[in-house]
Write a structure and sequence with these properties.
The protein is of the alpha/beta class. Helix content is 30%, strand content 22%. It is globular, with a radius of gyration of 19 Å. Belongs to the nlpA lipoprotein family. Its main location: membrane.
């Protein structure tokens, strides 16, 4: 066991935040309307481009009209802005996150976002451009992990499950860097989640969220050195709204469509490599 945990903290590039922020502004005909009482106006949803935005586009183009739903999809490339613009009313809803992330975000930012409907799970994976198997990681090797608390915990557990590091007894997916009992000489680098894929060549291995892996043209079933287990996985991604807007008829229509047989088939056909898996059902608040 090492006495000193070697951690190098990297500052995520500002470009991702700037890009996410730029996506906040929207023309007057596509701004959120839930606080204006107009339930016939378009429902504006903030989403990660892939796979969330892709799924929403399918709903918009193939299913929404039959339900009388007008849907506008606003893409964001970071994990901070979607909740902020949902909370301040710039958009009506968002689709990109799981419950542990939302709980932490609400607590740290004083926001009041609540989950509505579970839709999918994206297994977290370990990827590399420099090694062929996790056993190749040794003392001095560098591994990047997402720096937000919930995904960092998932990443550390994935490393521990595969023998790269050892966590303190009793610690699971809520792990923090201080919970690493033995790093075995591996240097863990924190990055904003959106930067783990673009900066994969800066490290020996990177733990990347499913949506960012897909966006970087990585195929989890083929390219991942290790994948998070999906059975009993608590990290389902869901449709979310600001508290008080759960009963908006437009939100209910979208929740129903996102759990439809058509969407299930779309996900299974498009993501045959297992990078995205349907996980339907009501989301726990």
């Amino acid at each position: 066991m090492r006495n000193t945990l070697k951690i190098s903290v990297s500052i995520a590039a500002a470009s991702a935040v700037a890009l996410g922020a730029s996506a906040c502004s929207a023309p007057s005909d596509t701004t959120a309307s839930s606080d204006k009482g107009d339930k016939n106006a378009p429902l504006v949803v903030a989403a990660s481009p892939t796979p969330h935005g892709t799924i929403l586009d399918f709903v918009k183009n193939e299913l929404a009209a039959k339900e009388g739903l007008k849907l506008v999809v606003k893409p964001f490339t970071d994990y901070k802005m979607p909740n902020k613009v949902t909370d301040d009313g710039q958009v009506d809803a968002n689709f990109f996150q799981h419950k542990p992330f939302l709980d932490t975000f609400n607590k740290e930012n004083g926001t009041h976002i609540v989950p509505v409907q579970n839709v999918l799970i994206e297994p977290l994976g370990v990827y590399s451009k420099k090694i062929d198997k996790l056993a190749d990681l040794k003392a001095g090797s560098t591994v990047s992990v997402p720096n937000d608390p919930s995904n960092e915990g998932r990443a550390l557990k994935l490393l521990a499950d595969n023998g790269v590091i050892t966590l303190k007894p009793g610690v699971g997916s809520d792990a923090k860097l201080t919970d690493v009992k033995d790093d075995k000489g591996v240097k863990i680098t924190e990055l904003e989640a959106a930067q783990t894929a673009p900066r994969i060549e800066d490290v020996d291995a990177a733990i990347i969220n499913g949506n960012f892996a897909i966006g970087a043209h990585l195929k989890p079933s083929k390219d991942a050195l290790a994948l998070e287990k999906t059975k009993d996985n608590p990290y389902a991604n869901f449709l979310a709204v600001k508290k008080g807007n759960e009963n908006d008829p437009r939100v209910k229509k979208l929740a129903k469509l996102l759990n439809s047989p058509e969407v299930k088939k779309f996900i299974e056909d498009k993501y045959k490599d297992g990078s995205v898996i349907p996980a339907f059902g009501p989301a726990k608040s």
